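Researcher: Quick test of sequence recovery. Tokens follow.
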């Protein structure tokens, strides 16, 4: 692949990362079959994309964990009429 074609691949990966961390759902991605070796001129940029992917995965994992914790807390709140437990807890005293 040419330098321009590889740049387009990196552009797509960067756009997908930005979409994912903003709450969107990137379309599925398949690597190009005829990619060939990465041009040396794009090595630093490709490393930045790889680092950004790792950072995005860490962020999304933390958000998933936080959401799971919040859902667990919500599930602990009784629902429905006639519950014998209080619905609110005064934590300020």
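Model:
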């Amino acid at each position: 692949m040419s330098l321009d074609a590889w740049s387009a691949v990196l552009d797509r990966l960067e756009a997908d990362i930005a979409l994912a961390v903003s709450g969107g759902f990137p379309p599925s991605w398949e690597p190009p079959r005829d990619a060939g070796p990465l041009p040396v001129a794009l090595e630093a940029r490709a490393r930045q994309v790889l680092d950004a992917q790792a950072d995005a995965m860490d962020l999304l994992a933390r958000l998933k964990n936080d959401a799971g914790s919040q859902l667990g807390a919500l599930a602990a709140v009784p629902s429905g009429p006639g519950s014998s437990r209080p619905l609110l807890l005064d934590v300020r005293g």
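Residues 43-76 form the longest helix (34 residues).
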